[in-house]
Design goal:
- The protein has 3 domains: 85 residues, Rossmann fold (3-Layer(aba) Sandwich), CATH 3.40.50; 203 residues, Mur-like, catalytic domain (UDP-N-acetylmuramoyl-L-alanine:D-glutamate ligase, 3-Layer(aba) Sandwich), CATH 3.40.1190.10; 142 residues, Protein-Tyrosine Phosphatase, Chain A, CATH 3.90.190.20.
- The protein is globular.
- It contains 17 helices and 20 strands.
- It is α/β, with parallel strands linked by helices and 450 residues long.
- Strand 4, helix 4 and strand 5 form a beta-alpha-beta unit.
- 35% of the residues lie in helices and 22% in strands.
- A 9-stranded mixed beta sheet has the order 7-8-6-9-10-11-12-13-14. It has a 6-stranded mixed beta sheet with strand order 15-16-20-17-18-19, with helices on both faces.
- The longest helix is centred in the C-terminal third of the chain and has 19 residues.
């Protein structure tokens, strides 16, 4: 029976969904809000008789659709999605679509922070052990892209965002990891309760013989799976720190995996938590300690995550542009609490988050906070409530803040960009913001001949 399928959002995940599903029997409708992309797609598909590029999406169009595949950027709270569901139209995320086309195993990682680091560690450990593995999901590689050409006995190391979890139905990982939960994306999820419920959908279809790995702070999360925890406290099942040792425990039988010093290039306690989660996965999957240590000795953090990007005249510059929520910024401050006088750049697009926790957790080395972006006024008010107004300076753009810092910082001090906000008020994405940050720094030194 012929179907009418709508691919809504046509960047990486939308295109991968289309490529996986495309056949000459069904009708395909493509819609993306980007007008320039619409023109490109009209040219690209002008000779495809069963592919229709839409300039707008309304209820009349939806009445003729059987199935909608949405990209992560499309919210299930969109009124058109609500209308489609009421009409009985199936709405799936790209993640759900890819999962429905494979029988291979999944290790899925979600949480507010640390997802990319953790899932990448797991992937590298699997590869080091000679396993057939693919790194997919929110890390930037659509699952559908890999499923289309997959081989049997592949393990998918899958970073899963709350946006992807909104429209899953049957998604069922063999191992699911929940790293942490703190306020984020509340503009989309409407409330913290909704956000937490969406994160927990990762466990929805898991069974008794599946595995859940939780931060010890989240032990109140209940599932029917075998549960491992990670943190600072001893665990019967899980991974914990004992002085300078990383210990794995299975049914109370403890085994030293490595020294903390074997984690060579990852800064901060939050990264040790990511490592312990990855160790739990590796041991559940039967990997050897040497495979784990090989990766920990060489693995470095992703770009734009507390990354030292420049040093000049004894001044260090750190790019944490991927720090897009309050908890990530608190982690960054604690990681760089090294006694050096620090300027912190905060602010960006408003996701509905509040910023009081930053000022409650301000480290003693933060001398000035340079505030930019849409959230500028909210941050200034939070700073006032936190009795930190004397530390705050407001700027119109990131470039202005960087220029002030470069002209003010002295040898032995440092600048940290950790915005606690997304980047879309001024930049394409967090990577673009991080790259511009470095560009502005270098421009200052060229212009001022420092």
């Amino acid at each position: 029976m012929k179907k009418s399928i709508l691919i809504w959002g046509f960047m990486k995940s939308g295109r991968a969904s289309f490529n996986l599903l495309y056949n000459k029997k069904d009708k395909f409708f493509i819609f993306d809000e980007n007008k320039d992309l619409q023109v490109q797609l009209l040219n690209e598909f002008c000779f495809h008789l069963n592919v229709f590029v839409l300039k707008e999406l309304n209820k009349i169009v939806l009445d003729g659709i059987d199935q909608i595949i949405i990209s992560p950027s499309i919210s299930i709270f969109d009124e058109r999605i609500s209308y489609a569901k009421k009409k009985g139209i199936e709405v799936l995320s790209e993640l759900e679509l890819g999962f429905s086309h494979t029988k291979n195993k999944f290790v899925a990682v979600t949480g507010t922070n640390g997802k990319t680091t953790t899932v990448s560690l797991i992937y590298e450990m699997l590869k080091n052990a000679g396993k057939r593995a693919e790194l997919v999901g929110n890390v930037g590689i659509p699952l559908c892209e890999k499923v289309k050409t997959e081989k049997k006995h592949t393990i998918y190391a899958c970073e899963v965002s709350s946006f992807q979890l909104e429209a899953v139905k049957t998604f069922k990982p063999k191992i699911a990891c929940l790293l942490n939960i703190s306020p984020d994306h509340l503009d989309r999820h409407k409330s913290m309760k909704n956000y937490v419920a969406t994160k927990k959908k990762i466990f929805k279809n898991m069974e008794n013989n599946d595995f859940v790995i939780l931060n010890e702070k989240l032990k109140n999360v209940k599932t029917k799976c075998k549960t491992y925890v990670f943190g600072t406290k001893k665990a019967k099942f899980g991974c914990f720190l004992d002085k300078n040792n990383i210990i794995f425990s299975k049914n109370g039988k403890e085994e030293k995996i490595c020294d903390c010093s074997d984690v060579v290039f990852l800064r901060g306690f939050h990264n040790l938590e990511n490592v312990m989660c990855a160790v739990c996965v590796a041991k559940i999957l039967g990997l050897k300690n040497r495979n784990i240590k090989n990766v920990l000795n060489t693995f470095s953090a992703q770009n734009h995550r507390i990354e030292k990007v420049f040093s000049r005249n004894g001044i260090d510059f750190f790019d944490d542009s991927k720090g897009t929520n309050v908890d990530a910024t608190i982690c960054a401050m604690k990681t760089l609490d090294n006694g050096k006088g620090t300027m912190l750049i905060l602010g960006g697009a408003d996701k509905g988050d509040e910023f009081d926790e930053i000022f409650l957790n301000l480290t003693s080395n933060i001398q000035k906070i340079l505030v930019v972006g849409e959230t500028k006024e909210k941050i200034l008010l939070a700073g006032k409530r936190g009795n930190c107004l004397d530390k705050l300076l407001a700027f119109t753009h990131l470039k202005d803040a960087v220029e002030f810092a470069c002209g003010t910082l002295k040898s032995g001090e440092q600048l940290l960009l950790s915005p606690a906000c997304s980047s879309f008020d001024e930049f394409k994405d967090y990577a673009d913001r991080g790259e511009k940050f470095l560009e502005y720094i270098k421009g200052c030194y060229e212009n001022f001949s420092l």
